[in-house]
Amino acid sequence: MAEMDTSSGGGHKKGPGVKKGKKLSTRVDLTPMVDLGFLLITFFIFTTTMSEATAMRLFLPKDADKPEEQNKAKESGVITILLGKDNHVFYYEGTLKPDGSNFKSSNFKEIRTVLIDKKARTPEKDLVVVIKPSDDCTYKNVVDILDEMAINILKRYALVDISDSEAQLVKISDQSAAAGQN
Amino acid sequence: MGRAKLPRKSTNIDMTAMCDVAFLLLSFFILTTKFKPSEAIEVKTPNSVSSKVAPSENFVQVILDKDGKVFIAMDKADKKELIANALNTTQNLGLDVNAFKNAEFFGAPLGSMASFLKLAPEAKKGSLLPGIPVKDSANNELVTWMRVIKEAYTGEKEPAYLLKGDNFAKYPAFKAIITAFKKNDILKFQMITNPEGAPVGTDLWKKGQAGEKSEE
Q1: Among A59-63, A82-86, B79-83, B115-119, whose mean pLDDT is lowest?
Q2: Is the separation of the CB atoms in A146 and B193 below 8 Å?
Q3: If exposure means fewest CB atoms within 10 Å of the residue's CB, which of A5, A113, B90, B179 is most exposed?
Q4: Chain A closest CA to B105's CA: distance in Å?
Q5: Chain B from 63 to 102: CB within 8 A of any A CB
Q6: What number is the ipTM of this complex?
Q7: Out of B14, B195, B205, closest to residue A54 by CB
C-alpha cells in the first residue's frame, strides 16, 4: 500500500549511450510520520480540557435587624480575616486590641495553617470565621478565602463589612508591606 | 533429523494502516475541538475546589468584569419579555420588547437601555459599554433589575442565580451585587469558578479520600 509501483512496466528501452539512472526505492519509512501523528493526538487529548465551569454556592444570611436575633459568637472562638490590597491577608483572634498587638500579617499560603491551627484549638461549636474584605481587595481574594473555608471544612463563617478603624489599619499595613518589598 | 526450516520473514511492517488510523484520530480531534467562542464580555473566573457543575439552563447570570462593570444575562426568552414589559410599565423606558428578547445580555443604565438595545452587535462589547450602575449604594440599579427578574419568575421554579466575576474585579462591586441580591431576598446564589483539586493533606482532601461525597 505504501509502496508505489516503480517497475516501469517493462519495455521502453533507452537508446545506446543513455545512462540508466539508478533505480531508487520509493518506499518511505512511515514510522516517524506515525510517531508525529500520535504525538499530535496525545497533545490534543491532553490539552483539550473538559472545562465545565463549576459553581460555588454561597448562602447569604438574612440581615437581622434586632440585636437579639443576631448570632452570638464566643470571643475565644472567633478569628477575623481581613483582606487587603495586593493579596495581603491579615488576621486577628478574638477582638482587636486597641494597640493592635494581636493584628497579624499573613498571606494566602500561610492562612491555611493558621486556620487549621485555630480549628484544632477550638471546640467546633465555638469556631466562627469572620471575613472582612477591604475595598482594595479583589473578587479573586474573596473567592479564594471562601474556598479556603471549603478546603478546611469550616462550616461557620461570615462575610462582614470592614469597620473604619480596621480599614485604616489594613491600609497602613498594606503600605508598610509594600515598602518592605522594595 | 530434518528440521523443517521456517521461511525467513521480513520484519518490515506496513505502517500505512497505522498511519491512517493515527491521522484519522488526529483530524477527528482537531475538528471536534471547540475553541472557546470569543465572548462579548471577557471574564477570567477564579478557581475553587467546588466540584458541582454550574447549571446551564434556567439561570440568571450576573457578570462582573475586571473593571467592576456589571452585566446581566439570562436564557429564557419568555421571561425576558415579561421583564421588558415590566420595565416599560414601571420605569416608562419605552423598550423594544423584541430587541430585548434577542439581546444576549444587558449592560446599561436603565435610562439608556432603549439606546443600548438599538446598538449594533459589534458595539455590544463589554469594554465599550457602561454596565449597570451599582457603585452608588443609594441608586443601585441592580436592585431594580433583580426585583423585576424575581417578579417575572413568581409562581415558578426559581432560576439559578449565578455570579460570574473576574479575578481582578474589586470587592466594592461584588458587595454591591450581594446587596442587590439581599434586598430582594435572594439568599442563595452560586459563583462560577474553574475547578481545582483539593490540596493534599487538608481536611477536604481527607474527606475525599475517605470516599465521602462533598456536600456542596
Answers
A1: A59-63
A2: no
A3: A5
A4: 19
A5: 64
A6: 0.72
A7: B195
